[in-house]
Amino acid sequence: MNARHLGIVAALTTSLGLAGCSDDDAPVPPPVAPAPPVQGAPLPRLAPAVGAALGACAELATRISYPDTHITAAKPVAAGALAVAGKPVAAHCQVTGQMLRRVSPVDGERYAIGFEMRLPLDWNGRMFYQANGGVDGSVVPATGPAGAAALDNALNMGFAVISSDAGHGAPTPFFGLDPEARLDYGYAAVGKLTPMAKSAIQAAYGKGPDRSYIGGCSNGGRHAMVAASRYADQYDGFLVGNPGYRLPLAAIANIAGAKTYAALASTPGEPATGFTQPERALVSNAVLGKCDALDGATDGMIQDGAACQAAFDLQRDVPTCSGARDGACLSAAQKTGIGALFAGARTGSGATIYTSFPYDAGLAANGWASWKFSAPINLDSGAVAFIFSAPPEDPASFDGRDFVLTRSLDQMLARINATSARFPENAMSFMTAPDATNLGKLKQRGAKMLVYHGTSDPIFSSDDTRDWYRGLATANLGDASNFARYFPVPGMNHCAGGPATDQFDMLTPLVNWVEHGQAPDSVTASARGAGNAAGVNADLPPTWSATRTRPLCPFPQVARYKGSGNVEDAASFACR
Q1: Max CA-CA distance within the chain?
Q2: Would you say domain 52-247+433-534+547-556 falls under CATH 3.40.50.1820?
Q3: What's the pLDDT at 55?
Q4: Where are the domains of the chain?
């Protein structure tokens, strides 16, 4: 194990008061219990950020100095040279570099934490850490997505933005052979990069950031959620999208799904034929038939997800095939297997792997199918085998399809919880937020957290995020809404897509909450129909307006139709 491991772990502090007296005759006062937190007590409000102007860009290549950090370039980028969602990005300076270069004593590969920072000429005094998705491994443009399919970005809003490869230089899972690279991917790269980025901003503008934000979707949402626990003192706002809250478990559950679909397949070896597109449309339409009107409007959207799960029953509400499968029914075996996956995947011995998935309107989307049928073999297999397992598999003999279809789920579950001399921290430790519902440091600082999750997400279940949020509320006397709010996105698949209004800006409301005390009671989301600058959502039903809007509501509220008004307009709905 490399002795230079610099993983940063947020310290848990406790205080112990000891009372004593010098007079043996004096009474000893009884211990005083700490006052319980007061429901609804006001929290600190953080001051708004104050901006500054950037000086010469090229000079930053030599002016930025931080231990074990190599700045490889600093170059000006003209206004409009970069565009996001068709919108030209303002002039800025692009700084690239690496931290902590090393050669692994385990696999002999060269590692470093690669990064880029984009520093606007007209800076708003804020930093945004762009947490990227997948297995990381590449430094993508540091623009700072403001939400799902957003039309603006943090860089264009005036933030200084950093993006990184999380400590390995290729988007493949083989870095998992190196213990330090695993920790960098899980949490340590954020801890190492954050003080460096603030130091670089100080060098660039003559002052550090007044307010710091971190955000991302998918694995990026997981990064932000972990940072809320480990680095609550470093960030003021946390933007968490479709988080892989318990990513190793979700990956194994997806492998369990592939095993089930392969067993149901009409074409051997092709899991997609175990639950075909016509069959998925059949189930989606049956769910809509039971649930669409529960929010007061029959509009192809399921706003009241909780009521829907109580109203819909797969066995009762979908026809059972009496003969061959033809897309108009499900076989009895399909109902048993698919129903078990939605209820929560289990191992062969009956051990629970992951949480349930909600029945929703987005099951027929191509994105749903890709995650369920292709990702287990092409993505989840490598992640479980090399990043999460102790010990990892042998790359020379590894076959992803064989791993998924023949290996024991019980063994996979055991190995992601295992440690060894070489891998002393298991995957459930380095990939998940420690004590995830204990965010007292974040709360008491005045920091804020906004979370969103598509209810048709096929890989990370919105039920898992909902359960986490319920736990957070329980840990805060039943209500965490004064510092953290969760917004389900009806119909949305993984970070975008599905029959959904999947375009929204969550960064602006987060800033307004952190710096101005304006808690978001709803966020307006739009459909991405023809002509949308961020790209058309191919999953939109043809009966919808291309510009349909809906309010996203903080859980447990749902958007309900007011009883009159245009059903394509968010103004006709209220969060209740």
Answers
A1: 91
A2: yes
A3: 87
A4: 52-247+433-534+547-556, 251-430
CB atoms inside a 10 Å sphere around CB 264: 20
Structure tokens at 185: 């991917």
DSSP string, 199-250: HHHHHHHSS--SEEEEEEETHHHHHHHHHHHH-TTT-SEEEEES--TTHHHH
Residue-wise pLDDT tens digits, 481-537: 999 999 999 999 999 999 999 999 999 999 999 999 999 999 999 999 999 999 999
**Helical (H) or strand (E) element with 126:** strand 126-130
Distance CA 333, CA 393 (A): 33
Rounded Cα gap, residues 479 and 190, in angstroms: 29
CA 226 to chain centroid: 10
The closest of 457, 490, 488 to 254, measured between CA atoms, is 457
Which residues share a beta bridge with 83?
Answer: 88
Active-site amino acid positions = 218, 457, 494
Half-sphere exposure in the Cβ direction for 505 (13 Å, CA): 13
CA-to-CA distance for 513 and 483, rounded, in angstroms?
9
| Res. 269 pLDDT band, cuts 50 70 90 | confident
Q: Are 568 and 555 in contact (CB under 8 A)?
A: no
φ, ψ (nearest 5 deg) of residue 273? -85, 0
Kindly tell me the burial class for residue 312, based on how many C-beta atoms sit within 10 Å of its own C-beta (0-12, 13-18, 19 or more): buried
Residue partners of 344: CB distance under 8 A and separation at least 6: 253, 352, 353, 354, 355, 356, 357
pLDDT digits (tens, 9 = 90+) for 345-375: 999 999 999 999 999 999 999 999 999 999 9
Residue 34 pLDDT > 50, yes or no? no
Enter the tokens of residue 161: 């933005």
The Cβ-side half-sphere exposure at 565, using a 13 Å CA radius, reads: 14
Q: What residues contact 3, with CB distance under 8 A and at least 6 apart?
A: none
Q: How does DSSP assign 332-354, residue by residue?
A: HHHHHHHHHHHH--B-TT--B-S
pLDDT 10s digits, 75-101: 999 999 999 999 999 999 999 999 999
The CA-based angle 167-252-362, given to 5 degrees, is 100
- 53 CB contacts (<8 Å, ≥6 apart)? 121, 122, 123, 205
In terms of pTM, does the model score above 0.90?
yes
SS3 148: coil
pLDDT above 70 as % of the chain: 93
What is the pLDDT averaged over residues 390-394? 97
What is the SS3 assignment for 372? helix
